[in-house]
Amino acid sequence: MKTIINSLILVLLLAGCTSLDEEVYSELSPNNFYVSEADADAAVIAIYNGLNRRPFHDTYFTSLTFMPAPHAASRLPVRRMFSNYTFDSSNFQVIGPYWAAVYDMINRANTAIGRIPDIEMNETLKEQLVAEAKWLRAYNYFNLVRLFGGVPLLLKETKSLDDINQPRAPVEQVYHAIIEDLKEAAEKLPASRAEDKKGRVTAGTAKFLLAKVYLTMAGKPMDDDSGLQEAHDLLSDLYANKGKYGYDLLNNYADIFDLDNELNAEIVFAVQQSRVVGGQGTGMAHIWGPLRSPFGGTGQYHGGCTQEFYQSYDATDVRRDVTWLERYTAKGTNQVFVFGKPLPNGNLGPYGDPRNGMAQAKYQDPAMNNVDGETDIIIYRFSDVILMLAEIENELNGPNATAFDYLNEVRERAHADTYDQQAANTPEEFRELIYKERFWEFSFEFHEVFDIRRMGKVQETIETGFEAQLFGTVYDPKFELYPIPLSEIQTNPNIAGHQNPGW
Question: Which CATH number fits domain 5-189+483-491: 3.30.70.20, 1.10.10.10, 1.25.40.390, 1.10.10.60?
Answer without folding.
Answer: 1.25.40.390
